[in-house]
Amino acid sequence: MKGLKRKGQQKSCNVIPGFGLSMGVTVTMLSLLVLIPLASVLVYSLKLSPAEFFQLIGKSVVRNAFATSILCSFIAAICNCIFGMILAWILVRYEFPGKKILDGLIELPFALPTAVAGITLSKMYADTGFPGKYLAKLGIQVSYTKVGLTIALIFVGIPFVVRAIQPVLEKLDGSYEEAGNMLGADRRTIFFRIILPELQPALLTGFGLAFARGIGEYGSVIYISGNSAKEHTQVVSYVIMQKLNYVDYASATAIALVMLILSFLILFIINMIQVHQAKRTA
User: Mean pLDDT over residues 170-192, rounded?
Assistant: First the structure.
């Protein structure tokens, strides 16, 4: 009986003090900052009839903006997965002067105002900037095109991939690589058969976050994209701001609802893939 009491007492002592208060504050803040604003978009969109909703979404400007945002965000997320993995590998596996500085610079797109990044990138890649003037001599125009838009999305999205992969690489057991080397596997086989499967969940997480961030990005792309309806360089966030400036709240809300659903679907698919991957490697 004494042993049972001790176990019960020990179990009750492990409960975090103030759990009810902490949980209440958490739920309240989550509701005020996330759930209620998202629900308001849904409630306002339900005031539109299905015919009105699809008519607003089906406009050519809106369709082109969605196509541009999704395509450029997808390409940028793929590039971020490649270069983000290389950056994370260098930061984890190598020691070199300035490593701490480089590691800190990865966070720069988070700290830097996105409008500042957009202005800087547009000036850099313009015909008078560096390296834009050299690219212009080769007949390559970056600023005010989809190429410049993709570069801006790579800039804002690469920290998601690096910070998702970096902790996994730090905890990755090097004995598997040594075993593969002892069994005669070359470097390519070791990477694709041993290392990459361990990095896939983190890589998919980084891809999903970078992709979702790119679709809704505004500040860094508003200047470098050019916002040309003719050249199809308008992004979805710019179209929403344009509708709000014209006091067209119905169109802005309909577009926002599609973006909200799209973001949820992306994150849901990524989470399902991670669950499946975790069960397969368990």
Answer: 79
